[in-house]
């Protein structure tokens, strides 16, 4: 049976990743697993913006799709962008197998507020559903 694979991109909280995996499995009613590999996003870092180009990361994720992959969702804590926008919360391939979400701007701390783990989990799930398995938009 094919599985939804969560791919850590850079360092990411393992507990939050496990929570997301459980929620995604429940939402889409497919098995979900955390990939054993981790993708280092440094190749997509652009110093002039101090951000990571999400399309470059998505392209690199292609080589990690396996015969067992239903979809691959990259999950990261780095700040993402595409050239025409200041930032993105994530990006997905239209009609493809890969999507990517970032928790960077979903954290209350980013906006100078106290941490809220429950809110972060809810926000991350919403973005994962939006940019994950059934995404129909490229970016938001």
Describe this structure in a few short sentences.
The chain is of the alpha/beta class and 140 residues long. The protein has helices spanning 14-28, 54-61, 117-131, and strands spanning 3-9, 32-34, 45-46, 51-53, 69-76, 80-81, 90-92, 98-102. Helix content is 27%, strand content 24%.
How are the elements arranged and paired?
Layout: E1 3-9, H1 14-28, E2 32-34, E3 45-46, E4 51-53, H2 54-61, E5 69-76, E6 80-81, E7 90-92, E8 98-102, H3 117-131
Parallel strand pairs: 1-2, 1-5, 4-6, 5-8
Antiparallel strand pairs: 3-4, 7-8
Helix pairs in contact: 1-3
The overall pLDDT average reads 91
Pattern of helices and strands: EHEEEHEEEEH
Number of strands: 8
Strand order of the largest sheet: 2-1-5-8-7
Spans of at least 5 consecutive residues whose pLDDT stays below 50 are: 136-140
Q: Any idea what the shape is?
A: globular
The number of distinct helices, counting runs of at least 4 residues, comes to 3
Q: Return the structural class.
A: alpha/beta
Q: Could you give a short account of the major beta sheet?
A: 5 strands, mixed
Could you walk me through the main structural features you see in this protein, from its secondary elements to its overall organization?
It is a single chain. The chain has helices at 14-28, 54-61, 117-131, and strands at residues 3-9, 32-34, 45-46, 51-53, 69-76, 80-81, 90-92, 98-102. It has 140 residues and is an alpha/beta fold. Helix 1 links the parallel strand 1 and strand 2.
